[in-house]
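Troubleshooting: if your tokenizer reports a length mismatch, compare your output against this known-good record of 189 residues.
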Amino acid sequence: MPRFVMNCLFGLIAFLSGFQLANAAPTCSPLLSHTFPRLQDEAPQNLCQYQGKVILVVNTASFCGFTSQYEGLEKIYAKYKDQGFVILGFPSNDFGQQEPGSNKEIADFCKNTYDVKFPMFAKSTVSGSNPNPLFKILIAKTGTTPKWNFYKYLIDRNGNVVDSFGSVTKPTSTSVINEIEKLLGEKAQ
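Known-good structure output:
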């Protein structure tokens, strides 16, 4: 009888351990292991909360010839957000001094002009010798530095950079949409 009880206990422990592991939250990839202040209130936000989602990271500016891309970004965010897609916007004054305002001014512009609902973060540097930590990794992984505002990096559910798109590529372009839909169809590992 003691052997039977021991086997049952070991079986129960193994079962519960497997259950716990299966239900554990996915670990955060090094790419997303960063905290940035939110644009609207500068409260710290950890990017690990987006682990398991398909992510489009975009550097933005309010006074750029590509600023109207906010409209397309908001359109694809609204269409795919319930399927596990998110856009992360990073305002930057790196190119042509086209984002000179304060975080509050940028937040007001995004809300009042384009009704931006996807997560936006405080203004930061995205290129040059000292890009923010996320862009530093994005640049290292792709070998591509943003050349202007509205440069886009696409990240899969596992936190891997899978593609990048130049400023002239609209977020609603077939190439961007096809990649997003392909990644949304894949499971996180």
